[in-house]
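Risk register update: the risk of archive-format incompatibility is retired. Evidence:
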Amino acid sequence: MKKEKDYNNEIIDFIYATCLKNQLINAPIEVLIDNYSNKDDYIQLLKNIEKLINIDEELFLLDGKIYKKAIELIDKGKKYNDKNINNYINELILKLNNIYGINRKEKEVKIEQYLSKEETVRKIKILENKDLLKAMAYDGIVLSYIVNDLDYDYLNPIFTVSSIYYILENIPELFTVEEFKNNTIIMLTSAIKNSTILNISNKINAKKMINRLK
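Archived output:
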């Protein structure tokens, strides 16, 4: 993989935010606190949370635990007693509270609309919040494989194809990088090979995506 400076800021921001999304869904809060215990890492965390809010604010509506993890992580920065950091903390907490603090009816409508939109984008059946969270947790994994050229054969073929559709919808610029595009095509080819006869629609969607990328 090339150095980060070789890619535009939009691609880098999306990679960071998507990997954080995976962490917020899967990792225990104790692990996350430890991961961002260094001041520089913590400041990067704040930036990543802001990016994630801009990209996928509905994530914080899907599961209250994710919202609480983000608030607890942000709050840890008060120990630095830094005016600029404290202002940033207050700004992010206000944004998250505005997202999560809407009334129940409004929240239900927003989630229903979001699930429907993501089902269309991701080409998978999404019946409830946990179905989407499973798919979202895979976004960071797939993205890591794309940018680091890892062994694709061990990935779940359905979630792989789903995440690639999501990534293309949100950051098409990623696939202007020849290395990433080629890695994605190899990944999709692997997903086709590993899809069973019961996953015929997944094979079709993977083939369609390959044609779009070529």
